[in-house]
Amino acid sequence: MKTEFLALLTKIRHLFGWLPGLLSSILMLCVAGLVAEMFSRFITKLILRIPGQKRGAFVRSFTMAMQRPVRIMLVIVFVGTALPVSGLPYDIMQATTHTLVVLFVLMLGYAAVVATRILSDAYLKRINGKDDKDDILLRTHMTQVRVLRRTTDLLIGLLTIGAALMTFEPVRQYGLSLFASAGAASLVVGLAARPLLTNLFAGMQIAMTQPIRMEDLIIINGDWAWVEEITSTYVVLRVWDWRRHIVPISYFLENTFQNWTHNSAALIGVVFLYVDFNAPMDRIRERLREIVHSAPLWDGKEFAVQVADCNAQVMTIRVIASARSAMQSWDLRCEIREQILAFLRDECPEALPRERVSHVASVSGLDVMGDPGMLSPPIRRPPPGAYPGPRNGAGGGGMGSTDGGQGHG
């Protein structure tokens, strides 16, 4: 078949024999490229007629996405096959052959990137289409596929560019000498590429170990943030007020952080109430139970009311209630606070915290201070002068008078 194709191209070249030699050769190569284009379109139409709702649809979409790089590579192959019979000068033929090789390598890398993206998107689409999908499992697969896809794109790009450059003789010799020496130059290149390699390997490790996933809720620098995008070198975090944190991907392997949705999106929210010692706990507990049980944001799993602490002024009531996600937990806690504060204000004002001031007055000052019921009981202190302490003069005088009495007798 190749011989027949070359014979056909030779006849076509002879048809343009009345033209200058270089122009007839170029026209023959254009005819070869046109034949490749027509052949590619014919094969594409045949593939697009494959029936089927699932596999057939995937084959058709894959063909539509790959038709451009495959068509260009097919044209390069046909033109390269026709070069020996084109009649071009040797130096022009060598330059054209090298150009076609470089273009073929680049298009092969581009086709590999496109194929990787199509396969990964089809896999993610199939995961999203499941009715009984698990949110954690879905986000795990999304993270793994996207991080590995970006890493694969980077590796394919590096290999493609490296293969294209190695077709040049000076570059190939430089590369061989560089690998042969493996001295100071390799050390400098390794040190210069250390941040890139660190983040690249960190991305692969994150894809495998899953400390973070797409749409995970984490706490970083005191902000709530959702993982919006994971690339091969950095992570984009979306804050609740639409700000974005751009963080190197190696940060999540070298520093501690909070991941609120690592195993499950459900969280237990905590509300603290500070009330007076006169607060009726039975009524407050019952009202909190009504609030939580009637709240649509409560998932029906965890609820408790306890006196967690107390000090000289107030006692602390801790209310816990679970919700399906962090944002629902936040809204549930806000709703609990609003309703219980309204209840305390309207129906249990004695439960509101207050400052206690004790006025202590002497017995003679009771009529001056006003109502005796507002005062604390008087403190019983010893009267002034009840115990002035030992008096040496009195003790010494007694002993002296005794001695003197004995002497006088």
TrEMBL record:
Mechanosensitive ion channel MscS domain ranges (all copies): 196-262
Main subcellular localisation: membrane
One Pfam match: MS_channel_2nd
Ranges of Gly residues composition bias in the record: 392-409
Domain of life the protein comes from: Bacteria
Keywords assigned: Membrane, Transmembrane, Transmembrane helix
Keyword DNA-binding: no
Signal peptide range: none
Entry's localization field: Membrane
InterPro entries xref list: LSM_dom_sf, MscS_beta-dom_sf, MscS_channel_2nd
Region feature (Disordered): 371-409
Species the sequence originates in: Komagataeibacter intermedius NRIC 0521
SUPFAM superfamilies (UniProt xref): Sm-like ribonucleoproteins
Protein name: Mechanosensitive ion channel MscS domain-containing protein
Residue ranges crossing the lipid bilayer per the database entry: 15-39, 70-88, 100-120, 174-197
